[in-house]
Design brief:
The protein has 132 residues and is an alpha+beta fold. Helix content is 25%, strand content 32%. The chain has three helices and eight strands; from the N terminus they run H-E-H-E-E-E-E-E-E-H-E. The chain has helices at 6-19, 31-42, 115-121; strands at 24-28, 46-53, 58-64, 77-79, 88-89, 103-108, 111-114, 125-131. The strands form two sheets. Strands 4, 5, 6, 7 and 8 form a five-stranded antiparallel β-sheet that branches. Strands 1-3-2 form a three-stranded antiparallel β-sheet, covered by helices on one side. A hairpin with a 2-residue loop joins strand 6 and strand 7 (111-114). The protein is globular. Keywords: Ribonucleoprotein, Ribosomal protein, RNA-binding, rRNA-binding.
Amino acid sequence: MTMTDPVADMLTRLRNANSAYHDTVSMPYSKLKARVADILKSEGYIADWTEQPAEVGKTLTLSLKFGPNRERSIAGVRRISKPGLRVYAKSTNLPKVLGGLGIAILSTSSGLLTDKQAAKKGVGGEVLAFVW
């Protein structure tokens, strides 16, 4: 069975593992998911990510990050642009998540960027997800 929305699947797995206090979460690998994991790591939401060979294809494993008293570093994740309704943002009207405390992940002509990186480069694109 083919997956209609792999990014939504990734975010749902991440949300479920985070709420269940799991240390790691695994999913099928893709370059787009690896770039989203890169952004989450650089912004401090996850500890690390690795790719491993599997029986078929590769597996992407995210190591979740928790505070000293097991506080979650990810408070919430929301998929914005879906296959049934694409959401785009102009460079002059980029979304702010929680007044700048969270990040918006955008797919731009310069690759996947956060809202702050896109504003600095002056590009807009498809709003994939909000993370806070």
